[in-house]
Amino acid sequence: MIRIWAVCISFLTIGNVSEGIDKKVCDGVDFVSREEWRARRPVDTYPLPLPVSHVIILHTVFGACDNTPLCIRNVQFIQDYHMDEKGWWDIAYSFLIGGDGLVYIGVGFGNVGEFTINYNSIGIGIAFMGNFDIMTPTDQMMNATKNLINCGIKKVMYLKLKTIWATFEAFLCEVF
Q1: For residue 31, which of 102, 123, 136 has the smallest C-alpha distance?
Q2: Signal sequence: where (predicted)?
Q3: Residues 121-166 pLDDT 10s
Q4: What is the pTM of this model?
């Protein structure tokens, strides 16, 4: 059973969309590009209609990692599972947050993911790697998420943020 809680509500309007992600644009966000984690090519992509209004915080349930080589392996496994077992075009999430504090680019800010029914085309999905019903995200993971969301609001995308949803209790409004 998936539990969903509304954890924050705020109304913000921000900047312009950027094609791709320039690592220099997002202060405090350490990205691992799709090339760096050796992503497979997506079967197809669908542009994310902007502005988006939601950020969905999820957890992968499996794939907890505390070092970059293990996180890379787990992101690859998750992509393989989504594409080969689920039949999806690519990895489901916009971004994944590793226990190493790095942000792994999934479909990114510019493409529709497959993370939450009815929200895929109106939000971005940020997945914490691991099962946070039984453990707590690290401070590194929380800070990486905060910095990623703030970057999306201030510098990367046009976003009218209405709601942040989380699928596990550990994620709190204190991110902002």
Answers
A1: 102
A2: 1-20
A3: 888 999 999 998 888 899 999 999 999 988 887 765 545 555 565 5
A4: 0.81
H helix intervals, 61-118: 68-80
Across the range 21-34, mean pLDDT stands at 80
Q: Minimal CA–CA distance to 22: which of 176, 157, 164, 158?
A: 157
Tell me the C-alpha distance between 63 and 94, whole Å: 16
Nearest one of 160, 82, 141, 163 to 115, comparing CA atoms = 82
Measured distance CA(94)–CA(92) in Å, rounded = 7
**Residue 167 near residue 4, CB atoms below 8 Å:** yes
Which amino acid, one-letter code, is at 54? H
Contact 144, 103 (CB under 8 A): yes
Structure token pair of residue 18: 């950027």
